Amino acid sequence: MDKELVIIGTIQSTIKDLDSAPKMEDEEGAVRARIVMDPAYAEALDGLEPGAKLELFTWFHKSDRSVLKVHPRGNKSNPIRGVFSTRSPDRPNPIGLHRVTLVAIEAPLTLVVEPLEAIDGTPVVDIKPKPREK
Fold this sequence. Notes:
The protein has a single domain, classed as YaeB-like (Elongation Factor Tu (Ef-tu), domain 3, Beta Barrel). The radius of gyration is 15 Å and the shape is globular. It contains no helices and 8 strands. A hairpin with a 3-residue loop joins strand 6 and strand 7. With 134 residues, the chain is mainly beta. The chain has strands at 9-12, 31-37, 53-59, 69-70, 81-82, 95-106, 110-116, 123-129.
């Protein structure tokens, strides 16, 4: 079984550090950002069009992978819980899931998306279309 994670692109964002990042994409502070794709994956972008609703998967490269329990939303007044019952970025495999809209495609390899709460330099590991509602 191949266990290698492949980085397909990198986030360019005005959010520069964890302290200024909103907790979720639907909160105030989420921004319009760019995904600069690795040229090796240019063909995989075929079929993407502005207006598309996407699920963006990232690797929270600044997260603490040893954390197993947290105060939800970093609020010490919330009772401590296991990370699998929270949206904490600190977890054994810090994979981020972001629901965004594709605003534009700049040049052949830059996607403009919003709203995104990921910090500048965050690696992108996958992009999928949002599932159709039933």
